[in-house]
Amino acid sequence: MSRLFGSVRARATLGATLVVAVALVAAGAAVLLSLYSNLTEQAGTEAERSARTVAADLAGGKRADQLSLDDDDRPVQVVAEDGTLVAASEKLERISGTGTNAVRPQKQPPPTPEPGTGSGDDDSDDSDDSGDESGDDAGDDDSAGATLQPGEIAEESSLTDGSATIDGDEADYRFAKVQVEVPGQGTYTVYAGGPLAAEQNAVSTAQTVMLIGFPLLLGVVAGVTWLVTGRALRPVEGIRSEMAEITASEDLSRRVPEPGTHDEVARLARTTNETLAALETSVDRQRRFVADASHELRSPIASLRTQLEVAAAHPELLDLDGAVEDTVRLQRLAADLLLLARLDAGERPTGTRVDLAELAREQAAGRKGVSVDADSLEVAGSRGQLGRVLANLLDNAQRHAHSAVTVAVRRDGDRAVVQVADDGDGVPGADRERVFERFVRLDDARSRDEGGAGLGLAIARDVAARHGGTLTVHDAPAGGALFELRLPLA
Q1: pTM over 0.90
Q2: Which of 404, 20, 483, 442 is nearest to 223 (CA)?
Q3: Per-domain residue ranges for the chain?
Q4: pLDDT tens digits, residue range 369-383?
Q5: Is-contact 481 424, C-beta < 8 A?
């Protein structure tokens, strides 16, 4: 189980399903609430319409016993000011939620208004008493607060929820309460109910549809998400399997498949192949470096061993100067290899301020045919490494110069420029990048005693790059090679 939900496909499917489930529940709740509210409001409107119809009959002069309340199956009550039920639906058996639970009307004697007075007189005591008694009616609301004129129906009504049993059928209703001033009889309150069965049936049906439809819809969403996610991740699985095979075979020449799309997976595949290409280049370079270093070390070691073996057998034939020279070559080569290893490991130079003019004169001192024209410019870096760069450039220039080597230090914007030029044969255009590769000698016929191991320029460029600069080669004014070192000023 943990392995299943550990996959991106499973998590994406679960997440999408949960999001859709939450959205469906929220939407379903909103629909049910809206449906309930609308249908309940509709039932209340129907109840109020029925109550006002009865109130209009009373206001028109009909007596309570003359009302026709059995045209439909809706519960109706007419209550007098004293709380007496004066009229009700004939089939009404039980009711709750109105002003009274009575279902059988009580007969009242006909009103006998006094001469000169009547319930229609404004500000009469009977009107005041009617208002007081109406205010005592159970379930009365603020609509009774205003005095009604004879034959007038209250504009305001109130709604309550309740239930009623009509002819043996029990149901829930929305009851409307409307007051009317009946001429000569006082204030009557009419209760009429609107059935809530339609609302309940509609809400129940909607709930049933949702309970059945939502799981089916969630199943469809989960299935589609699972299929779409699997299709989208299929190239990723291809990349993973190919990388696993590359790791197992250690064949860095292989590449992962790149889909023909332009999405993130395609960019991942291209980046992976670029990384593999860079890794392959790095490994090949490392292998060549080890092979070349072994080759370079073998020659002086073999020469030194031969001299020592000859000296052991014939001490008088010991070539001490040759042995010392081979030992020095070994020492220099070991130092170069150690410096390259530190540079490859990402060693960063210190932030010491170095005067390039002073460093150039120091490295040129004691060298024949070397002239220096330098402005005092300071850069930040390692004095030892920058001195090694100048020394390597001067060694290379002297090795190929016919007679003269010049060193110039000048400023170019925010950069310090060091130029080392010779009057030799120069570097062909096709080889101007190749000369900075490790263990590269353009003159294969040149003896090892005359030349180095082919690491000087490679070390110089690496050190320049670590100091935020560049090292390039151009044609010198005298016809030879001009190596230009650019470094940011301190």
Answers
A1: no
A2: 20
A3: 28-111+118-201, 264-332, 348-488
A4: 889 988 888 999 888
A5: yes
